[in-house]
Amino acid sequence: MVQLSRGALALAASILPQFVNGAGLNTAAVAKGQLYFGTATDNPELTDTSYVTQLSNTDDFGQLTPGNSQKWDTIEPSQNTFSYTKGDAIANLAEANGQKLRCHNLVWHSQLPSWVSSGTWTNATLLAAMKNHITNVVTHYKGRCYAWDVVNEALNEDGSYRESIWYTTIGPAYIPIAFATAAAADPDVKLYYNDYNIEYSGSKATGAQNIVKLIQSYGAKIDGVGLQAHFIVGSTPSQSAQASTMAGYTNLGVEVAITELDIRMTLPSTDALLAQQKTDYSNTVAACLATKGCVGVTIWDWTDKYSWVPNTFSGQGAACPWDENYAKKPAYTGILTALGGTAIATTTTTTRSSTSSTSTTTSGSTATGVAQHWAQCGGSGWTGATTCVSGYTCTYFNDYYSQCL
Ligand SMILES: *[C@@H]1O[C@H](CO)[C@@H](O)[C@H](O)[C@H]1NC(C)=O
């Protein structure tokens, strides 16, 4: 055993600021009242020990989502034969780390085994197969999930129902029936409708609101709407647009979460694209933080090394807050700053009642103000306060980011 002196410990802390308790995305999110900041992951990556070390860092990640291993083709590859090994591996990891689990997903048009997608069905037989799947899977994971994405991507871009095997055979009733079946299997887990391009107002967001209302009209339980937020650098909706769209859902009595956030760019990545990506990440996280009822943000994996984007969108990538070598990108700073609050510039106006003159005292212009605990206090391009409020030290992380700790 090596005994470290107090001085050595202080030195270790100062040169390893990333290990300072509270410095990460999840800790900052929880300090602001959110339930978690989390990430998706997938089974093949779990052989990469460096990857797993950061995945398990609860300063940054308080929640995991299995990217693929709870989907229908993995869990029920042939009818009524259930295979939970891969899904359990991620559930077990989350539990070992003390991380929440978002479970994903039960009913979707994609990644279905052929016995479902190419089967010969009647309304009654397909409903029975759907209910059997939901009941088995939700029962298996009962007590282990914070939430289930019960129905995924049921809408076309114009807000009409997607022509999936579910819709064409059962009709829109498959949605409330799926929610009622999940609720019967685990009355405590949060039940979500999850989709993309419902983060800004328009026909599809209206369609998602209509799904909430449809489920409620059947007397079934729906607890949340998941906004996937697979965005493109430079064309993500503004913070206020995202916040007002979220309010459209929470006004119906459900919570919301950002469930699959990533922000891709056309490669190669440049400093300008990375700076815009930082702004874009910050806007989405800030919109969630500003929305009562937005419980947390999940990124769709944390490193570009394992992002789904390059395999799906030709010529695009660099969508995650960490690069393929596990270095933090400016986007990381953008998220952390949005969660920790930027330097507060306060202006105090004093009116002297004894005379008619008015003097203005600026107690915190961005150049001279103090940054609050957790706030950014330095970094390339930073024009805000560089001193911290009493009791905290401006701590260097990297060239892009220093924080009051
Ligand atoms: C299928 O059956 C369910 C449950 O009875 C019903 O709600 C739904 O409308 C039916 N769909 C069709 C297309 O008949």
Describe this structure in words.
This protein has helices spanning 6-15, 25-31, 49-55, 72-75, 85-97, 114-117, 123-140, 165-170, 174-185, 203-217, 239-250, 271-290, 309-312, 330-340; strands at residues 36-41, 63-66, 100-107, 147-152, 190-195, 224-227, 230-232, 255-266, 294-299, 316-317, 348-351, 358-361, 370-371, 376-378, 387-388, 394-398, 401-404. It has 405 residues and is of the alpha/beta class. The strands form four sheets. It has an eight-stranded parallel beta barrel with strand order 1-2-3-4-5-6-8-9, surrounded by seven helices. A three-stranded antiparallel beta sheet has the order 14-17-16, covered by helices on one side. A two-stranded antiparallel sheet has the order 11-12. Strand 1 (36-41), helix 3 and strand 2 (63-66) form a beta-alpha-beta unit. The two termini are 29 Å apart. Bound molecules: 2-acetamido-2-deoxy-beta-D-glucopyranose. 2-acetamido-2-deoxy-beta-D-glucopyranose (NAG) binds at residues 123, 127, 170-171, 173.
